[in-house]
């Protein structure tokens, strides 16, 4: 039996093609000509010679060339949150991708995606701090109860960060951990939009995530703790029940099956 060739259908525009659109894609930050430029600052003759990579990132996110102090402070803040160990979401996900046989591109993509999602979660959990920073512009109100929702850190914490960064930043008095300290520094440096904060956080977390997930030591599925904790999957008439087999203090475990 001979198949009939399919008839050529005339090209038809879809809804997207019917909308008015420019003929070219416009860039607003990065210029490709003459060796490239970011916000008008040449890559070959300026950025590559006088700026560290994290300072170029700060320029890209803010549109302003950072001073030496601001560049150093940004580096300190990024480093504060760079130790994304295997117990954190970005690194755990990247390591799991590796032991599952993903290519390097997949490992890096996994780390980046989860780091960005982690950043969004951090912004949500630190919403009170960010709102306070926006209202006070980073200036610490010394009146009683001005920011009672945050525990005060030992003065040595602020002193170490200030000495390393060179910033005069009294708002660090309310920093209770590395994440809040980094957000306070980011805010002072002009990173205040959620997109800017997510970008900076993700960039920093990728340092530890890639170092761990791409390390040379052998990693395969046999090195992943698949039984921590051990789960027993039980099907009933309505839905699947996932039972944690962790020993309990009660004999009444309902639909959960205890694994011998």
From TrEMBL:
The lineage of its organism: Bacteria, Pseudomonadati, Myxococcota, Polyangia, Nannocystales. This is Uncharacterized protein. It comes from the Bacteria. It comes from Enhygromyxa salina.
């Amino acid at each position: 039996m001979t198949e009939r060739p399919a008839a050529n259908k005339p090209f038809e525009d879809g809804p997207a093609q019917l909308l008015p659109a420019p003929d070219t894609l416009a860039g607003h930050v990065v210029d490709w000509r003459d060796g490239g430029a970011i916000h008008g600052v040449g890559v070959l003759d300026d950025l590559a010679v006088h700026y560290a990579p994290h300072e170029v990132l700060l320029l890209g996110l803010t549109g302003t060339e950072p001073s030496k102090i601001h560049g150093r402070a940004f580096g300190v803040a990024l480093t504060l949150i760079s130790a994304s160990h295997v117990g954190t979401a970005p690194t755990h996900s990247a390591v799991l991708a590796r032991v599952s046989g993903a290519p390097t591109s997949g490992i890096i993509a996994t780390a980046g995606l989860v780091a960005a999602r982690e950043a969004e979660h951090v912004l949500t959990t630190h919403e009170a701090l960010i709102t306070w920073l926006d209202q006070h512009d980073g200036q610490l109100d010394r009146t009683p109860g001005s920011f009672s929702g945050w525990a005060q850190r030992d003065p040595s914490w602020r002193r170490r960060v200030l000495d390393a960064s060179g910033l005069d930043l009294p708002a660090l008095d309310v920093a209770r951990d590395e994440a809040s300290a980094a957000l306070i520094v980011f805010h002072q440096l002009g990173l205040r939009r959620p997109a800017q904060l997510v970008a900076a956080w993700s960039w920093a977390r990728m340092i530890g995530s890639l170092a761990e997930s791409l390390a040379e030591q052998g990693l395969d599925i046999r090195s992943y703790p698949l039984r921590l904790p051990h789960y027993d999957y039980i099907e009933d008439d309505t839905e699947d029940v996932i039972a944690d087999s962790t020993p309990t203090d009660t004999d009444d475990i309902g639909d959960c099956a205890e694994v011998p």
